[in-house]
Request: fold
Amino acid sequence: MIAILVRGSLMIALNMTAEDILPILQKVKYPGYTRDIVSFGLISDASLIQGHAKVKVEIGGSDSTLPNTLKHEIETVLEAEPSVSSHEVRVIFKKDNDAQNSQEADNGKNTLAGIKRIIAIASGKGGVGKSTITANLASALSKINNDQGEPLTIGVMDCDLYGPSIPLQLGISEQPTALEENLLSPVENHGIKVMSMGLLVDEETPVVWRGPMVMKTIQQFATNVDWGELDYLLVDLPPGTGDAQLSLAQILPLDGVVIVTTPQKAAVEVARRGAMMFPKVNVPILGIIENMSFLQDQETGEKRFLFGQGGGPLTAKNLETVFLGEVPLDEEIRLGGDHGIPIIFGHPDSAASAAFTEIAGEISSLLPTGD
Ligand SMILES: Nc1ncnc2c1ncn2[C@@H]1O[C@H](COP(=O)(O)OP(=O)(O)OP(=O)(O)O)[C@@H](O)[C@H]1O
Ligand SMILES: [Mg+2]
Reply:
């Protein structure tokens, strides 16, 4: 009994028709709607072979809790079905290729075409560790292998024009080279491609930008860098919801944004306000990362919650998104940042590295780059 559906149309039907699995999936309503996921055309792959059900669903929208909710509902329906003995269910966000294809550099080249996923890292206020999280997530993602067993290719775009710190964090001081007019080559270290304002301006020169300049610079940044093929491009944003964030969300085809916050309850409202603009411009909030969650005593293992507790999960709840995890306070994180060797590479066995690895895994499963 085999029925395989690809992108809504029946490709192969052996012995039995598609009725085998589709009527089962028709019992699953799209959350908040009376229509089912089959009639919505969300099933991109479904089969039922010898009792093993395999279902892949691709959804749009901006609700990062949806994949898990929908997955759970599909599994519940499958488990109630006598003909199904095991299952494999994947629910992922659809790739927005149309938006990516519209981006062209000044020289007519579409420099974003080879990038599979673009994720922004944002926060409501400054100093919460956004750049640290960006550098370490990039590092952790670069250690994940794709389906062919090759490491994922990662880039970082530092859009914090006022206080760029990514080059320092990733150990880069080299200037980017101009490949041709209006096309810069990113600089690479630890296998990660980087482009930052910090690489283009003199360290001694204070950067004073006006709104239109911010917009123009970000546009050039977004479109005039020869990124080549990337699985993930992480974009480090300046704090808040100013010109730069809005420009970016309009210029770059962002697949999602991750919000960084600290554990204080007082930071919850700031983080929420900072994050609110993203769904308005159709960028899904993938989840919340809480940084500086606790300091762990090396000897006793006791955790001290220097900045309070609960801010991350509460922000996630308020924004109706998922809590991606917590990152401890660790001197080695700061030292790694100051010396350009992210803790993921310097101390891969530390608890902090484990936290980054877990969060990177979570993000890559929310926004996969494979089929
Ligand atoms: N979990 C952590 N443990 C120890 N130090 C940390 C941690 N996270 C960040 N830091 C340190 O805190 C400082 C601020 O971090 P970072 O520059 O990443 O913040 P930011 O949110 O990017 O700041 P800005 O808003 O200015 O861009 C850095 O010195 C960094 O090394
Ligand atoms: Mg920063």
Notes: The first strand starts at residue 2 and ends at 6.
